[in-house]
């Protein structure tokens, strides 16, 4: 059969609109968005999990998919930690410090966790919780340290070169087990999400108590 050299896929056109909500498609085709921090946070984890499924089902694609998988898990972790810090003013009845605010607009996981970890003691005292086990905090800190060492600014799995032209990834990270990485990141995500849920509940509880007793 002769090849049709005149056939080609549709090309971008000036009249095209990328974001449309009035198309007569299946309702499942439509995404409903909003500035919901929980949706942002969960979305990156779910995307990582779906990509992991594809990578494990198609080993030939595992190498190229590893970059977005690591990025998505890392970004989920960043958003989850920041989400917890945003609850601190409600629970501790204080403004975030200048350093906390500065770190919130960065991508440095170690600094974000460095702000959050010491606040846990005050949070637990304020809401009457037992403090997290030392082994749990040590584990989170170690995971954060490892992620920060490999990708300190959330750039190394997005770009193959740094701004100075050096390779983004270290020489000792030429291969790794993506399934194991995802399992470990799932542990971290589960624990941080549990902390976030507890912090949100505590913040709402304090708001309800303040409203009930007329506390400003």
Would you mind describing this structure in some detail?
Helices cover 62% and strands 0% of the residues. The chain is built from 6 helices and no strands. It has helices at residues 37-57, 59-92, 98-104, 109-127, 134-150, 178-213. 22% of the residues are buried.
Based on the model shown, name its key terms.
mainly alpha, 6 helices, globular, 216 residues, 62% helix, single chain
The amount of beta strand, in percent, is: under 5%
Return the structural class: mainly alpha
Taking all residues together, what is the mean pLDDT? 87
Report the radius of gyration as a whole number of Å: 22 Å
Q: What is the domain total for the residues?
A: 1
- Strand segment tally: 0
Helix content: 55-70%
Sheet with most strands: none
Silhouette = globular
Note the total helix count: 6
Cα separation of the termini: 79 Å
Write down the secondary-structure element order.
HHHHHH
Summary of the model, kept short:
The chain is an all-alpha fold and 216 residues long. The chain contains six helices and no strands. The protein has one domain (37-211).
List the helices and strands and how they pair.
Elements: H1 37-57, H2 59-92, H3 98-104, H4 109-127, H5 134-150, H6 178-213
Helix pairs in contact: 1-2, 1-6, 2-4, 2-6, 4-5
